Amino acid sequence: MSTDPKRWVAGHVAALPKSGIRDFFELVAKMKGQDVISLGVGEPDFVTPWHVREAAIFALERGKTYYTSNLGMIELRRAISTYVAEHFSVSYRPEDQVIVTVGVSEAIDLALRAFCNPGDTVMFHQPCYVSYSPSVALVHAQGIAVPTYAKDNFALTAEALRAAWKPGAKILMLNLPCNPTGGTCSLEQLTKIAEFCREKDLLVLSDEIYSELTFDGVHTSIASLPGMAERTIFLHGFSKAFAMTGWRIGYACGPAALIDAMMKVHQYTMLCASIVAQEAALEALTRGWDSVLKMREQYHRRRDLIVRRFNEIGLTCHSPRGSFYAFPEIKSTGLTEKEFSFGLLEKEKVAVVPGAAFGENGIGHVRACFATSYDQIIEACNRTERFVQGLKK
Ligand code: PLP
């Protein structure tokens, strides 16, 4: 009989590919204390605004240490409902159309578990957030990656969707603005995508976690387009806009019957999000907007800087319309994205993520997160320039 502990690991978990960025971050961690500039992790460099942290402390002082309703505190659901109506023009009832989750991560997991039967098909545009494909695999569903391209500023098109679609496809995962490309869609493109979803009867999981970090144009939620609210789960959270990654708090809104299905899974797994994080989130949504605007202004300046510098260095870089990621092409260096990332880290101590981590369509690119200070970005770009010039010698 085998004594290998791996014999107990479920087949579909064993089959998950090793994260394309794990090796890389292990190396970054080993280089701690060596003046590494990290453009790696997708995390704000700001601390959660003080009044939000204070609201959490105050909640603890008042003895708020218990479970909340499975759906989340009603006061927070009301605030979410008001925010979504005002910013995205979609109305959700706080009583049964909003669920508070442990980050958008849990909301994605709940949605896939609630809506996928084994063998169902889920479409997503790619390059995409590293978790999408594994999350689909974890519910025994099949993923279809729909390519987006640098020449289109990584906007998803209805034509690409149609070309990739297969009979029986059930769900479309959208992430606009997108991690890692910063791509979004114009209203015209989004309208065509919506038409396609109605034609093919697709349920949309719309991850809009970066919507508040839109620099060019106005963000539109697909849920706000005609006939879409009834087939869309709107996913959002506090990690990015409010610099609250460590609080683990997000939410989903959608038709009551679908939120109820997600709630069924949530009540037996997570039970509820942390009450302290919920109190903080309530404060953030009701009084945190000045901080969001200030942070967005900083990200905007940094975006303009990093895009300009990458292009000057000869790494063609489109201007991401939102998010805090630049996704330059590194093909001109003659290196693969892995060679480029490891070389840049070893020689110049700048960490960027190899584009292949975000799927096949990320090949030939690296992701540089500009959620770090302006001065650090200047220095990281100078080092990158030295690295690229060194390759020519
Ligand atoms: N969705 C996207 C597109 C992300 O980039 C991330 C985090 O990087 C998440 C979801 C996870 O967010 P949360 O911290 O709310 O779980």
Automatic annotation (TrEMBL):
Asked if the Swiss-Prot or TrEMBL record annotates the protein with the keyword Transferase, the reply is yes
Looking up Pfam families in the UniProt record yields: Aminotran_1_2
Listed GO molecular functions? Answer: pyridoxal phosphate binding; transaminase activity
Q: Which CDD domains match?
A: AAT_like
Which of UniProt's keywords are assigned here? Aminotransferase, Pyridoxal phosphate, Transferase
Q: Name one GO biological process term.
A: amino acid metabolic process
Q: Which cofactor does it need?
A: pyridoxal 5'-phosphate
Enzyme Commission number(s) from the entry: 2.6.1.-
Task: Give the PROSITE patterns listed for this entry.
Answer: AA_TRANSFER_CLASS_1
Specify the Aminotransferase class I/classII large domain's residue ranges: 35-382
Query: What family is this?
Result: Belongs to the class-I pyridoxal-phosphate-dependent aminotransferase family.
What PANTHER family does the database record attribute to this sequence?
A: ASPARTATE AMINOTRANSFERASE, ASPARTATE AMINOTRANSFERASE-RELATED
The molecule here is called Aminotransferase
